[in-house]
Structures are given as structure tokens and as C-alpha cells.
């Protein structure tokens, strides 16, 4: 009998090991440390069985058994298996993604004993003055004398010095105690306190009772514009579930998980809540996982990967902004958080609520097919007036950093009224290209098919595809001319132009560059809320879920590229962006305006969006997708290959194509990826389309199993992605 182990290596199979002599067989779902190549790896046991293919003498024994019991509940285990099959991704890549990083590295799954530093009697009485020659020691004693607790894990965060702690220990002023942490106490479903909710309006009440009356698995789309009271509906539905002693999993896009959101949940529910987002460190994540697994979490509020949090008594899943692209993981295990959450809800047999102002076409199709129930909120809660929409033809108009004179006038008008203005430009940096005026040379990244973006503030040019950067050149590398001009406009340039045009209106820029420091986005949002900032400039980061009641004018400077994109999802994304951004203006009692600048004022998509709105757009777009045999009607996967030479990547895909059995799956390609060269690699791809899931699954499974044996597969890197969101 051998043990099959899933290892985090990019080979689509399990690996067999011998049990350790004299020890019980490790159970499926437990971790083991095993030899792999010249190193050792932490793997997860999947099954026990004979190993027919290998010479038994070559099979090595397991080194260590790390867990006594499985880390996965039965449904979580099933979720991992289902996801692995659905996404054509080996268990070795799937299972580790479902557990915290520290567990992937082999740390103990049970809470480790905690060491606490505390004052001795002498330490409590010592006068701080006597330590004034040892300021580090003084700081520690001052901290502890102020009745604070100091755990081992806090030392570096508080910047206490280890030698100082050691010295205090030797002086007998400090002592350490090590204890096993208490298991979390179960929370009380009969809790009292918590903020009193508003009286629900009729539409909210209908939505709440539809969900509450439902038993078992069911999927609900809560479709309502921003500010229509979706969150109130979530809170209300959650309350009923929590009162039954069951816990709730809430997933939100990364950018939506603001302190305001967290505070709103905490005010409403004075219950233990685990918050999981990118700023939470690995130790905190592990601790959250441990508490949730022990039944100590009433609510888990987190981003994509929080969906795997173990919750022994799950009663409901909520996904806010379900259309958001950040739910898709773009590397390794390429899953969609929303779709896996629906799978989890089904396995756990609990309801799931998907909320959005601009539901994904996939979701709307599920509604049309009768699989999901559609609940709508048509009115903004509280006051709210319809937004005035303006399509600004900018052909022939002089542009100043992308701003047309009519838009500049409107900005002035709204600022004069004391309101805030939000300008949206989906291109960060100062300018997207650097041009030589004498010879026409455009500065290109040597590793990608892409121009360098000029970043003036840092005096650099940067490639936005591979991240390489260098000092802003003064001379053309081709002809030596110093006449270098920037072409096009990015957010950095727009911000500068606004400072010149509106010197009295402070502006803030929100994009990946300006918010890279931890906490900087939050402090910017706070300045906006306090009204210190009058103009907000940003990329699509700005388009998401923030409530700015004083913004009355929203301008979209340049969205034309989406009208001509080769990606079939581009129009859906533009429609979502426009609708979300437009929803940001005129929230309170003030009337809002949205200006969309374009060189294509006749484009039917723009007219449809401004005239009929998102719902009508979505209906037409779905019909188009059906005729074009695209998702969500057809099942789509993409196979991608990259190599140092183009023919290697292309050759592999060509060979793969020749192995694909004739039948229901069509392979389109291979073709060069839209960005053919990236970070020095040549990239090719092919689309795989099938009329239904079964056809895709049954054709691709045996096919994918053969591909690693191809000689050409060894000379490139390749992967397959199911339901790709980006075909770049
Ligand atoms: P969404 O999640 O759709 O953006 P919210 O639930 O955040 O909407 O509601 C927007 C605002 O309206 C919030 O300030 C909320 O407190 C308020 N609100 C929601 N529902 C009601 C209601 N029934 N009565 C009064 N105020 C409400
Ligand atoms: Zn030149
Ligand atoms: Zn590059």
C-alpha cells in the first residue's frame, strides 16, 4: 500500500510514497513532509492505493507526518476535488491555496502555545527614572506599567529590542509565561446590542423575505444600483442566519474592504468577526483560520481567498460586487471566487446572495435560465435624483491633458458650487509613450512588445507589462537628439494640469502608484470624505464602491479603446465601468452630471448605455454572445504557451491541436497573444470552445493528460485556464 500525495509542483499528477514503518497511515487531507528531488516538500495526502507504474524500490518513504486529522471538512475536501476537475488544475496547486501560507510551509495547524512577557513584582514597582540610562528598557517597562500586555508576536511590531528584554529578564524586572491559548468560546446567538437597523423599504423587504424563506442551496442575484440598500439587505438576511447560531461568509472585492465597511458590520453585529484582506499577515491569517475552524467566528469578511475559510456551521454566503474582476485569480490555480463560492454553497447546501449594480453577463444568464432568482432594488435609499448624462464629442476640440474646453468649464462650475469632481482616466503614469521629435523613435521596452510609460515624479520610464524601469532618457538612443516629447496623457499629467487650471481646488490622485504604501489609500479617502480635496483623479480603482456624497460631476476622459478591443468582454467591462462611475455622482440631494468624452459620438454602445442603461445593454449583449457562440452560452478555456522563441510556443500548441479528437470541442488558433512578447518571452494561445460543460470536460481531460508527454511541451511553459476573463 502506498500513499498518494499532492505536491505544489506544476506537474498534473499525484506522487506516491511509502508509509513510515511502525506508524499509522496518514489520512487524506493531512499534511506530510516528503523527499522530492534533492529537497523536501510539504504535501497533502489524497489517497492510499497500489502504485502500478513505478518500480517499488524507487518509491521513497514519507519523512514526517504533520497532522493527525484532516485539515479539510468533508465539504471542503469535496470543493477542492470539484474545483481541481473543473479548472483542469492539479490538486497539488488547488489544495495548498485552500489553507493559510503558514500551513503550506508546514507549521502546526493547532494553535501554538503563546509566550507572554509580564512584569514581576519588582518590575511593577520600579521607578522609570532608574532606567533612564537604558532608554530601550525604560520603554518596555513604561509600556507594561501602563497595563498593556506583550505577546511574543508583538515584539517586532512594537519595535522593542531583544537585548533590552533579555537584560530586564536578568534584572528580575520581567518574566515570561508560556500558555496554551484557550479555545475560542462559542458566540451567543441571542446576543443583544448592536446598531438598530433602518426600517426596510418595500423592495428590500421582499428581497429579505425571499432569501429568508428559502431552505438549502439557492442562488439569489440582488440587483440594485449603488446606494439602493443592498448592504442593508445583506445585514438583515445575515441577522436571521446568525440568530440560528450559524455563521456567514461575506466576500468583497479587495478595494471594497475599507475600514468603513468593516466598522458597519461590527456596529451591527457585536459578534466575533474575522477580517481577511491583503494587509493581513501570515500569522494573523493562520490565527483567523484556527478560530474559524474551531467554531469561534460568527462572520468571516474577506476577499477572494477567504472563500476557503473553514466554517463548521456555515449558514449563508454573500458576495458583494459579484461582477468584479478581482474575484478572478490570475495565476497558479486560476479560479473565479464567485463561481467557487456558488459551488461551496451548493456543497454546504446553504443560500448564496450575489449583489451588484452591474451583474456579470454570466450571472444574468443564470437568472434567465431560471437557475438564479432575481431580486431588484430600483430606488436609491434616501434621497437621490437621476443623473444628467452628457456625451461630449471631442473631435476637433483642443485638449489640455485630455480635458476638453466644455469639460473644463463644467468642472469650474461644479467647483464654484462647492462640490467635488471626479475624473477618471484608466492610464497611470505621466504619459504612455516617449517620442523622439527628430527621428520618430518611440521608446520601447526591450523585453515586451510595449512602449515605456513615462513617470515624471520618479524621473523614470517604466514598462507596465514586465515592470522593468530605467532613468528617463535625455537623448534618443537612435539619433542622439535631445528633443524628446511625451505622447498621450496619464493620471500623473492630468493631476499636474488640474493644479495649473484650478489652483484653488486641491486634487488627489488615486492609482496603483499613489496608493502603493500601506494605508495611503485610506488616508486619501479620508481627506476626500472630509472635503479637504475637491478634485479626485484616478484609474478604475476609483470606480469601485466608495461613497462620496459631495461628488456631483464625474468625467470619463478616454474610454474609446474599449470600443475597438479584440477582447469580447471589453464592451461588458466598459458598460460596468460607466454604470459604476456614473453611479458615483449626485448621491445625496444634489443633482449629478456625468460627462463621457469620446471621438466616437455615434457609437451604438455609448448611445445604448446613456439612453437605455445597463440592463438593456446586458440583454442585447447576451443575445450577441449567444449568436457568436461565446460564453456564457459556450464553454471557454484558453491554452497558453510561452517560450524564448516564438516557434517553440507556437509549435507546442500546433502539436496539441493535432492531438485534439475531432468532435464537439473547437480549437481556435494557435495565434499570437495580443501582447506577443512579454518579459522576454514569446506568447501564443488558442481558444477551446464547447457547446456544454460535459463536452469540454470529457474531451479535455484525457487530452490534457497527454500533453506533458509531448517533446515540444518540455521546451515551453504552458497552462490552461477555464473561464478566462482576460485574453491578453
Ligand atoms: P448599497 O449597498 O446598495 O450601496 P447601502 O445598503 O449601503 O446600499 O445603503 C445606502 C445608504 O442608505 C446607507 O447609508 C444606508 O444606511 C441607507 N439605507 C439603506 N436602506 C435604508 C432604509 N431602508 N432606510 C433608510 N436608510 C437606508
Ligand atoms: Zn531620435
Ligand atoms: Zn516590459
Describe the structure.
Helices cover 29% and strands 23% of the residues. It has 728 residues and is of the alpha/beta class. The strands form seven sheets. Strands 11-12-10-13-14-9-15 form a seven-stranded parallel β-sheet, sandwiched between helices. Helix 10 links the parallel strand 11 and strand 12 (299-302). The two termini are 46 Å apart. The model has no long low-confidence stretch (mean pLDDT 91). It binds adenosine-5'-diphosphate and zinc ion (2 copies).
Topology:
Layout lengths: L1 E5 L8 E3 L13 E6 L2 E11 L14 E2 L8 H13 L4 H7 L3 H4 L9 E6 L1 H5 L9 H11 L4 E2 L10 H9 L3 E6 L22 H11 L5 E7 L5 H14 L3 E5 L7 H10 L4 E4 L5 H12 L5 E4 L11 E7 L16 H12 L2 E6 L4 H8 L4 E5 L10 E6 L11 H12 L3 E5 L8 E4 L16 E3 L4 E3 L6 E3 L12 E4 L3 H11 L5 E4 L9 H10 L5 E4 L12 E6 L13 H13 L10 E6 L5 H8 L2 H14 L7 E9 L2 H14 L6 E13 L2 E10 L2 H14 L10 E6 L6
Parallel strand pairs: 9-14, 9-15, 10-12, 10-13, 11-12, 13-14, 16-26, 17-24, 17-25, 23-24, 25-26
Antiparallel strand pairs: 1-2, 1-4, 3-4, 3-5, 6-7, 6-8, 18-22, 19-20, 20-21, 27-29, 27-30, 28-29
Bound molecules: adenosine-5'-diphosphate and zinc ion (ZN) (2 copies).
Amino acid at each position: 500500500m502506498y500513499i498518494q500525495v499532492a505536491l505544489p509542483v506544476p506537474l498534473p499528477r499525484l506522487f506516491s510514497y511509502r508509509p513510515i514503518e511502525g506508524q499509522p497511515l496518514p489520512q487524506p487531507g493531512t499534511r506530510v513532509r516528503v523527499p522530492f528531488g534533492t529537497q523536501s516538500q510539504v504535501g497533502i495526502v489524497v489517497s492510499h492505493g497500489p502504485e502500478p507504474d513505478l518500480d517499488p524500490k524507487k518509491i521513497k518513504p514519507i519523512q514526517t507526518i504533520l497532522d493527525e486529522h484532516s485539515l479539510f471538512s468533508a465539504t471542503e475536501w469535496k470543493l477542492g476535488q470539484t474545483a481541481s476537475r473543473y479548472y483542469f488544475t492539479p490538486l497539488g496547486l488547488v489544495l495548498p491555496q485552500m489553507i493559510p501560507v503558514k500551513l503550506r510551509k508546514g507549521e502546526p495547524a493547532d494553535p501554538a502555545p503563546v509566550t507572554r512577557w509580564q512584569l514581576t513584582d519588582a518590575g511593577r514597582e520600579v521607578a522609570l527614572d532608574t532606567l533612564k540610562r537604558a532608554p530601550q528598557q525604560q520603554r518596555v517597562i513604561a509600556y507594561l506599567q501602563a497595563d498593556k500586555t506583550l505577546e511574543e508576536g508583538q515584539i517586532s511590531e512594537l519595535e522593542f529590542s531583544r537585548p533590552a528584554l533579555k537584560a530586564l529578564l536578568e534584572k528580575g524586572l520581567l518574566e515570561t509565561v508560556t500558555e496554551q491559548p484557550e479555545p475560542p468560546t462559542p458566540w451567543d446567538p441571542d446576543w443583544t446590542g448592536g446598531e438598530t437597523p433602518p426600517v426596510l423599504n418595500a423592495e428590500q423587504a421582499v428581497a429579505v423575505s425571499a432569501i429568508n424563506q428559502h431552505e438549502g442551496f439557492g442562488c439569489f442575484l440582488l440587483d440594485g444600483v449603488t446606494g439602493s440598500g443592498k448592504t442593508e439587505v445583506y445585514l438583515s438576511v445575515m441577522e436571521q442566519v446568525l440568530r440560528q447560531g450559524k455563521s456567514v461568509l461575506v466576500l468583497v472585492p479587495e478595494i471594497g474592504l475599507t475600514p468603513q465597511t468593516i466598522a458597519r458590520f461590527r456596529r451591527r453585529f457585536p459578534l466575533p468577526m474575522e477580517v481577511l484582506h491583503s494587509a493581513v499577515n501570515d500569522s494573523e491569517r493562520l490565527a483567523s483560520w484556527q478560530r474559524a475552524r474551531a467554531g469561534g467566528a460568527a462572520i468571516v469578511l474577506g476577499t477572494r481567498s477567504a472563500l476557503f475559510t473553514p466554517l463548521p456551521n456555515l449558514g449563508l454566503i454573500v458576495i458583494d460586487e459579484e461582477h468584479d474582476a478581482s474575484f478572478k485569480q490570475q495565476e497558479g490555480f486560476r479560479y473565479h471566487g464567485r463561481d467557487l463560492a456558488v459551488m461551496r454553497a451548493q456543497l454546504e447546501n446553504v443560500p448564496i446572495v450575489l449583489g451588484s449594480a452591474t451583474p456579470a453577463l454570466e450571472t444574468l444568464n443564470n437568472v434567465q435560465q431560471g437557475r438564479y432568482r432575481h431580486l431588484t432594488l430600483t430606488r436609491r435609499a434616501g434621497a437621490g435624483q437621476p443623473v444628467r448624462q452628457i456625451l461630449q464629442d471631442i473631435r476637433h476640440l483642443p485638449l489640455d491633458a485630455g480635458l476638453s474646453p466644455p469639460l473644463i468649464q463644467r468642472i469650474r462650475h461644479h467647483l464654484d458650487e462647492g462640490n467635488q469632481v471626479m475624473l477618471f482616466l484608466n492610464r497611470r503614469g505621466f504619459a504612455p509613450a516617449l517620442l523622439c521629435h527628430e527621428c520618430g523613435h518611440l521608446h520601447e521596452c526591450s523585453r515586451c512588445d510595449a512602449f515605456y510609460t513615462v513617470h515624471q515624479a520618479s524621473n523614470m520610464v517604466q514598462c507596465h507589462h514586465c515592470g522593468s524601469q530605467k532613468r528617463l532618457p535625455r537623448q534618443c538612443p537612435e539619433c542622439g537628439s535631445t528633443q524628446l516629447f511625451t505622447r498621450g496623457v496619464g493620471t500623473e499629467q492630468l493631476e499636474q494640469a488640474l493644479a495649473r487650471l484650478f489652483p484653488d481646488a486641491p486634487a488627489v490622485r488615486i492609482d496603483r502608484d499613489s496608493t502603493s504604501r500601506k494605508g495611503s489609500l485610506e488616508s486619501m479617502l479620508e481627506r476626500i470624505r472630509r472635503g479637504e480635496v475637491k478634485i479626485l483623479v484616478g484609474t478604475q480603482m476609483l470606480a469601485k464602491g466608495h461613497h462620496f456624497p459631495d461628488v456631483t460631476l464625474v468625467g470619463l476622459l478616454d474610454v474609446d479603446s474599449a470600443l475597438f478591443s479584440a477582447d469580447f468582454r471589453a464592451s461588458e467591462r466598459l458598460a460596468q465601468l460607466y454604470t459604476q462611475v456614473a453611479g458615483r455622482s449626485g448621491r445625496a440631494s444634489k443633482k449629478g452630471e456625468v460627462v463621457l468624452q469620446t471621438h466616437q459620438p455615434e457609437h451604438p454602445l455609448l448611445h445604448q448605455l446613456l439612453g437605455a442603461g445597463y440592463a438593456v445593454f446586458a440583454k442585447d449583449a447576451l443575445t450577441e454572445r449567444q449568436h457568436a457562440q461565446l460564453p456564457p452560452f459556450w464553454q471557454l478555456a484558453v491554452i497558453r504557451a510561452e517560450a524564448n522563441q516564438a516557434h517553440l510556443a507556437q509549435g507546442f500548441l500546433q502539436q496539441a491541436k493535432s492531438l485534439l479528437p475531432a468532435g464537439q470541442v473547437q480549437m481556435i488558433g494557435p495565434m499570437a497573444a495580443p501582447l506577443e512578447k512579454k518579459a522576454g518571452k514569446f506568447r501564443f494561445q488558442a481558444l477551446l470552445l464547447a457547446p456544454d460543460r460535459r463536452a469540454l470536460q470529457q474531451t479535455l481531460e484525457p487530452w490534457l493528460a497527454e500533453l506533458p508527454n509531448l517533446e515540444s511541451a518540455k521546451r515551453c511553459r504552458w497552462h490552461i485556464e477555464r473561464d478566462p476573463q482576460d485574453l491578453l
